[in-house]
UniProtKB/TrEMBL annotation:
<dbReference type="GO" id="GO:0032259">
    <property type="term" value="P:methylation"/>
</dbReference>
<feature type="binding site">
    <location>
        <position position="12"/>
    </location>
    <ligand>
        <name>S-adenosyl-L-methionine</name>
    </ligand>
</feature>
<dbReference type="InterPro" id="IPR029063">
    <property type="entry name" value="SAM-dependent_MTases_sf"/>
</dbReference>
<dbReference type="InterPro" id="IPR012263">
    <property type="entry name" value="M_m6A_EcoRV"/>
</dbReference>
<keyword id="KW-0489">Methyltransferase</keyword>
<dbReference type="InterPro" id="IPR002052">
    <property type="entry name" value="DNA_methylase_N6_adenine_CS"/>
</dbReference>
<dbReference type="GO" id="GO:0009307">
    <property type="term" value="P:DNA restriction-modification system"/>
</dbReference>
<feature type="binding site">
    <location>
        <position position="52"/>
    </location>
    <ligand>
        <name>S-adenosyl-L-methionine</name>
    </ligand>
</feature>
<dbReference type="GO" id="GO:0009007">
    <property type="term" value="F:site-specific DNA-methyltransferase (adenine-specific) activity"/>
</dbReference>
<dbReference type="Pfam" id="PF02086">
    <property type="entry name" value="MethyltransfD12"/>
</dbReference>
<protein>
    <recommendedName>
        <fullName>Site-specific DNA-methyltransferase (adenine-specific)</fullName>
        <ecNumber>2.1.1.72</ecNumber>
    </recommendedName>
</protein>
<dbReference type="InterPro" id="IPR023095">
    <property type="entry name" value="Ade_MeTrfase_dom_2"/>
</dbReference>
<dbReference type="InterPro" id="IPR012327">
    <property type="entry name" value="MeTrfase_D12"/>
</dbReference>
<keyword id="KW-0949">S-adenosyl-L-methionine</keyword>
<keyword id="KW-0808">Transferase</keyword>
<dbReference type="GO" id="GO:1904047">
    <property type="term" value="F:S-adenosyl-L-methionine binding"/>
</dbReference>
<dbReference type="GO" id="GO:0006298">
    <property type="term" value="P:mismatch repair"/>
</dbReference>
Length: 284
């Protein structure tokens, strides 16, 4: 299995083989919620469209693709200058005082530096848009050079964007494959980690996603979706056929703690068909 150079909450590294069983062949894979790109780097499509609403994440991919050598050289410098907590806090301050949007090489490199040095790879911003995750542990952070090299090579076949998922799913046409890994519906009232960027991902967002995916399937795209193993998932995505899989998840709260949980992989039948009984009610 290939590993991403980023740490990411909800990263699909542990369940990649299960996901691949459900991904059909096709020319192009569209990932509206790419995160750390574990599915991207472990599949073999001719073309990719990668999107995430987090512009810092997509900025990092953009500059890595543009010139991976200068990106990695600058990152290596930051690893040396900011190896301890004092260095981390001063880099975080620079990151937060910089230009927030638009393309910016230094911000993109700082984002990867912060990702490798912050607590448990958590990506969290406050209401003002400041990255506010504390320093991770004091062990020397791992510099992911081989992971970045293979990621950069694979990016040559990828188009990148940073927008809401609906705009990207609208691009999908006949023959495309879409893999969606949105922030999950909470598995319980206490497990409600659904905010990756500044805005939480709501039930209405899941309903929007369901509608966008059904429309894409009607245009001839194949659709695969990951989500939590809950009644709510099955209710919000009623036309999907779901498969339960075992996932080993690390907890955001406790570094190093892992537990096995079930999650769902949903596949939308193509061409999209809903079985109705004689009265016109949905049968499944
Ligand atoms: C579960 S993570 C994806 C993990 C990824 N599959 C991996 O293996 O690393 C969900 C991603 O959705 C992104 N996201 C949240 N809201 C979004 C939206 N409205 N449109 C697009 N991406 C969004 C988050 O920034 C986050 O990176």
């Amino acid at each position: 299995m290939n590993r991403s150079f980023l740490k990411w909450q909800g990263g699909k590294g542990t369940v990649i083989d299960e996901i691949k069983k459900h991904l059909p062949t096709g020319k192009r894979l569209i990932e509206p919620f790419v995160g750390a790109g574990n599915v991207f780097i472990n599949t073999d499509y001719n073309e990719y469209i990668l999107n995430d609403i987090n512009p810092d994440l997509m900025g990092a991919y953009y500059y890595l693709k543009l010139n991976h050598i200068s990106f990695m050289q600058r990152l290596a410098q930051l690893f040396i200058e900011g190896a301890d907590q004092t260095g981390y806090l001063s880099s975080r301050k620079i990151f937060n005082s910089g230009r927030r949007c638009g393309k910016n090489f230094e911000r993109a490199v700082l984002f990867v530096y912060l990702n490798r040095h912050c607590f448990n790879g958590v990506c969290r911003y406050n209401q003002q848009g400041d990255f506010n995750v504390p320093f991770g542990d004091s062990k020397k952070a791992y510099f992911p050079d081989s992971e970045m090299l293979s990621f950069a090579e694979k990016l040559t076949n990828a188009s990148l964007c940073s927008t809401d998922f609906e705009e990207v799913i609208a691009i999908a046409k006949n023959g495309d494959v879409i893999y969606c890994d949105p922030p999950y519906l909470p598995a319980s009232k206490t497990a409600s980690f659904t905010t990756y960027h500044t805005k939480p991902f709501t039930t209405e967002d899941h309903q929007r996603l369901n509608a966008a995916l059904i429309a894409a399937a009607e245009r001839g795209a194949s659709v695969v979706l990951s989500n939590s193993n809950t009644t709510e998932t099955r209710e919000i995505y009623p036309d999907f056929i779901f498969f339960e899989i075992d996932a080993r998840r690390s907890s955001a709260a406790k570094a190093g703690s892992r537990k096995s949980v079930k999650e769902l992989i949903g596949v939308l039948p193509r061409p999209h068909a809903v079985l109705l009984d004689q009265a016109g009610d949905r049968m499944i």
